[in-house]
User: Which sequence fits this backbone?
């Protein structure tokens, strides 16, 4: 029973275009959401996060949007660069601890940026 | 800053053997997490500690799995006896102050049980 779902196992985007990665969740108690990026043979690294009191958070080329009513969040990367090719994990937590609580992860989306 | 250190990086063992995975969190961090990554289930939280005390072990799959954190700088995840379905990548992560949003992950231990 996946509480965090990433329905696209892979996504291919041309360099310079926008990459949109989607994530859905079922647990209405989640109030903190994070995106992690993972290269092969490395651990996941934190990318960007958003609290449930916001609907948008931006950091450089990365923007996360949260739609609480739809229980949906998305990560936008603009413009996409070759170094963005990686597996992206959506994660969520309950409580104000954010990363200090255990995280529930989706299965990940493999983003491939084509030259 | 050395980051989260995990050892070994790779482990191949035979079914029935005991396996011990090790983790050294970032110095000063007071929460430590063990995750497992498989193709079928993705990244799953197994157990986490706050100030060396286990807080939630509901993700530990079976009694064959056990985790300890004897001090703030060391944790172990033990599987005894190991089974082929335990084959996965096991990650350790740590985070500092409560409320800090970033969990820092180690490079993982790739376990193969034959």
Assistant:
């Amino acid at each position: 029973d996946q509480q965090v779902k990433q329905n696209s196992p892979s996504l291919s985007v041309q360099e310079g275009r926008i990459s949109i990665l989607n994530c859905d969740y079922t647990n209405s108690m989640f109030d903190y959401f994070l995106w992690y990026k993972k290269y092969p043979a490395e651990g996941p690294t934190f990318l960007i996060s958003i609290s449930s009191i916001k609907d948008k958070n931006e950091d450089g080329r990365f923007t996360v949007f949260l739609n609480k009513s739809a229980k949906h969040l998305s990560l936008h990367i603009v413009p996409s660069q070759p170094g963005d090719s990686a597996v992206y994990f959506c994660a969520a937590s309950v409580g104000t601890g954010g990363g200090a609580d255990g995280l529930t992860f989706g299965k990940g989306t493999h983003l491939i940026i084509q030259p | 800053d050395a980051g989260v250190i995990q050892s070994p990086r790779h482990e191949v063992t035979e079914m029935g053997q005991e396996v011990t995975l090790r983790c050294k969190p970032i110095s000063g961090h007071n929460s430590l997490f063990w995750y497992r990554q498989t193709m079928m289930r993705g990244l799953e939280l197994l157990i986490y500690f706050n100030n060396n005390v286990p807080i939630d072990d509901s993700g530990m799959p079976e009694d064959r799995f056990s985790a300890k954190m004897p001090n703030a700088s060391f944790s172990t995840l033990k599987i005894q006896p190991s089974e082929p379905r335990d084959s996965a990548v096991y990650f350790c992560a740590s985070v500092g102050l409560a409320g800090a949003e970033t969990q820092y992950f180690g490079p993982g231990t790739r376990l193969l049980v034959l």
Q: What stands out?
A: Chain B touches chain A at residues 4, 31, 33, 35, 41-45, 48, 50, 56, 59, 91, 93, 95, 97-108 (CB under 8 Å).
